[in-house]
């Protein structure tokens, strides 16, 4: 079988950290050999890396692709988190149609892969265009070549009919997702979920065998309104409904009492840290050091730059006096993706899926296992991403995407954004 041999690069692994000058051979979608001096076959493609870094493709564990169409949206500054939801986020989601959803997925997926993200977990909501929205997102991401795990955010915000549409959409996509795509069951904030919604989510999880992807305690409003409207805190309601498990993914978790956080951790639920989003929304710093062994990073509605997110996560944790292990947070993204796709993603070893980056990073100081974290925090960035491979296929080469025209994608995105903003203005 024809293969691709990456020669002369420094291959990076995150946990345990290692930086080693070795060659890799890729056949089909997987890494099949790793050695100091591989001999290519007569028909192999040989890529001479000349000391460049071969880095695992990054995993964005919590993103909102549609938010790319809201960039620069001019609205009156909200004076509270509730006002932000009611005056900005929800009206924006209500204005999305299926064409905008697909365009946003292409534009957001393109930005993601150019920043070095090869797998993203997206939590989507478009209450007036529910049916088919995840398929349209997948089509948009497919154009770019990024790997996607997609879910629809079920909520009671649009009534029982809207809730059932959301459940059907998230279940339907999870059943038929194949290849580079998987589906999950998604949910909106707990205070927007009544008891019937929680029951429906439980049934959806049993039907699909997947996990729940949802925001948790992004702001104190989640606990206050959940208690006022439904008689109990979000964590208690989720536990009572058996919705938390090692497959579940809770984003933010910035406003949980220690007793509640401890109960979440005991279920094995993944916690997804989104420091730049939390900072931008002024909802406070989430105590990431307390998130345990199953914690990773997401960008939420900010730019899909995982290098920037990792740097912000580490620096904010230092500022809080609770420094985190940033390499573990990144490596946990690979563990999460490997769990969902049931294949090794992240290790630069034989048998793993070939999701990787070539970084043109000329290190000004020694780059070793001991110094890798400092280079990630203070040196490496999306500007160094020169090439991206997903499933053994080059998707970016010489800093240019190979399957889409960035100019055309940007033009389509601007048109879609203008249409969404116009619908918001007229509603």
From TrEMBL:
Record keywords: Hydrolase
Pfam families: Amidohydro_1
Highest taxon listed in the record's lineage: Bacteria
Hydrolase recorded as keyword: yes
Listed SUPFAM superfamilies: Composite domain of metallo-dependent hydrolases (SSF51338), Metallo-dependent hydrolases (SSF51556)
Keyword Hydrolase: yes
Domain Amidohydrolase-related: 53-394
Protein name: Aminohydrolase SsnA
Provenance organism: Corallococcus caeni
